[in-house]
Request: fold
Amino acid sequence: ITPEDEEENLFNINGEVKRGSGSAKKLSQARADIMKRWLIQNGVEESRIETKGWGGARKLYDTKGSNADKNVRVEVEILTE
Reply:
């Protein structure tokens, strides 16, 4: 099997890990872009998808609370069928 024949594993966490400081907004945009690629690979027309990286601007839980890790998420909003 050539690399072109293999399906891309977008959710592989065993690959290259980037270290250092960065922007929460850039990281959240990268997560949204991975979801966009997954949706396209699974048949959703690219022109129907918009992404937005919010960074830390839309927290659901207190950053010092026990549920703070749940702030790291990707939300999918379906606007029309």
Summary: The longest helix spans residues 24-41. The radius of gyration is 15 Å. The CA atoms of residues 61 and 68 lie 6 Å apart.
